[in-house]
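The protein record passed on for reference:
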Amino acid sequence: MPPLLSNRLAKRVMRPAFALVEQRMERATNALQTDLDALHHAVADLRRQSYGLGLLLDQAGRDGHRMPTATQVDTLVREVRAVTGDDGERARHDVTVAYRHLVALEALGAGGLAGTVSDVCGRLATVPLLAPPNGEVLEIGTAHGLFAAALRRMLRRGGVEARLTIVDPLDGSPTREDVVRGNLALGGVAAPADTARIERGGFEDGGVRERIADRRYGVIVVNGRHDLAAVRDLAAPGAVVVIGDQPRPAGLTGLGRVADSVYCRAA
């Protein structure tokens, strides 16, 4: 007996069923190909977008990349709230604005901001939320001056018009005074003496400390290891002092840590 599929009568009877199966397979194949084509175009678009974002936010010329994850931002917001006591949405709002300032200033300025996204944005968001007692800002060690420019913009958003004092040798390692002043202009400082002054030299130099001791500072940002007792002597009552993880002298009360920085209040 011939096989069923070789039987002429069977083939004639089953032809409509075969045709229906073929039609359905063709429709399924066409639908799958359409989906594959759409997926291919979507992946190509994502690659183009990723490449563009990488040019803007990757680590070239910086300490690290500028592409935080949602988890990193959520962690940063929790840390800022813990240090500042913010119980609303301002911490998240200010972290977001700080990130935009970080990206914008590094895109426009010469050089970069030292530190990770979390540390830089943590500093920029936390300091204004701690409501410094006055607008006198001292930065010890500035690199390219971009952090001071960003902090001034963040303080202005909080209603504080900052007067900057920067202490740094500025001997070309890593940058020069004209570069710092150009970057400060991005923060709204045209570099007149009454809104931004630069004291060239090391903080360990007694002459430098004497020249900057003409005022008490509401914000002091210490980059690197320096004499914190001398820092404390320059702080106004209730000043916000930002330091690395190092022993604190009497007169500086620790408020907590955000990313890599420790926040203190001066007595």
Strands lie at 136-140, 163-168, 196-200, 217-222, 235-243, 252-258, 261-266. The chain has a mean pLDDT of 87. The first helix runs from residue 8 to 57.
